[in-house]
Write a structure and sequence with these properties.
This protein has 289 residues and is of the alpha/beta class. It has nine helices and 14 strands. Helix 2 links the parallel strand 2 and strand 3. The longest helix has 14 residues.
């Protein structure tokens, strides 16, 4: 049976505290992840991939339902609603791979957590956007405005660059998407509220504006093309989201099949049609180091 298992961050975190990461899977899932890894993995074994619900799980579910069988790939999608558990589950072997993140985030995660997860192939980009329920244009924001930004290092820097690119704040010379709050040379009277990226859409009404990741904007039914005050440019954007695995598993024949399918014309058409509002843009190809 084709199944999609939904795990909220709270439930998964509680399970991890009591039973370890393996508790995120039901007892019936035991052994669903292939014991053999890398090129020696059984090509007929089920491939379990962790993903954020939208757009990552949407894309994987399309592959599972329409493309995988032709390649002899048995694909299971596990949905996670945060940016930590998909990586810890991949590192521990609870899942075979994940699809939810960009390279700056993964590099920072590996460094902080001493993990060795690596990208396999780029799939799509979700432009970061600035949204507000109170103001109609960027010029309305200024001294006294409160803006919510993601509190993880890579997305916060990305958010600050977006604000600087639109003249809302000024960053120190030479500082780009790696910016920290300490790199804000002139906040121009703007105050910042740091929140977990997944929590920002629900708090949009509590602040004057917020920088929201593309996938969470979609989940909150925000239309980036119409609702954003400012939107990150996709051209030469280093934040493509990719399929990732624990180092050493890149040659797994199932991973290679999935990578090929995720960069197929069928998936490109699916992304363009389902996310015609520009919230998700195909970005196929190898991941730049």
């Amino acid at each position: 049976m084709r199944t999609t298992v939904k795990l909220t961050a709270a439930v998964a975190a509680a399970a991890a505290l009591t039973l370890g990461l393996s508790a995120c899977s039901a007892p019936s899932d035991t052994g669903s992840v292939s014991e053999k890894k890398g090129k020696d993995a059984d090509p007929a074994a089920k491939l379990v991939v962790a993903a954020s619900p939208t757009p990552h799980a949407d894309i994987l579910n399309f592959v599972r339902d329409h493309l995988a069988a032709k390649e002899g790939l048995k694909l299971e999608v596990k949905e996670f609603n945060d940016y930590v558990l998909p990586n810890t589950a991949t590192q521990s072997g609870e899942v075979d791979a994940n699809f939810f993140q960009h390279k700056p985030y993964l590099d920072d995660f590996n460094k902080k957590n001493k993990t060795d997860i690596v990208p396999v192939v780029n799939v799509e980009i979700e432009p970061l956007g600035l949204y507000s329920k109170k103001d109609k244009k960027v010029a309305d924001l200024g001294s006294g405005s409160t803006i919510a930004v993601p509190n993880d290092a890579t997305n916060e820097g990305r958010a600050l660059k977006l604000l600087a690119d639109n003249g809302i704040i000024k960053l120190k010379d030479g500082v780009g998407a790696e910016a920290k709050l300490s790199d804000v040379e002139d906040a121009k009277g703007v105050k910042f509220t740091e929140l977990e990226a997944s929590q920002i859409p629900a708090r949009l009404g509590d602040v004057d504006a917020a920088v929201i990741n593309g996938n969470f904007a979609i989940s909150a039914k925000l239309n980036p093309a119409k609702d954003s005050l400012a939107l990150e440019k996709a051209e030469n954007n280093p934040y493509a989201n990719f399929l990732a695995v624990k180092k050493g598993n890149e040659a797994d024949p199932r991973i290679q099949k999935l990578a090929k399918l995720l960069n197929s014309d069928e998936v490109k058409k699916f992304i363009q049609e389902k996310f015609s509002n520009g919230a998700v843009i195909p970005a196929f190809g190898p991941v730049k180091s």
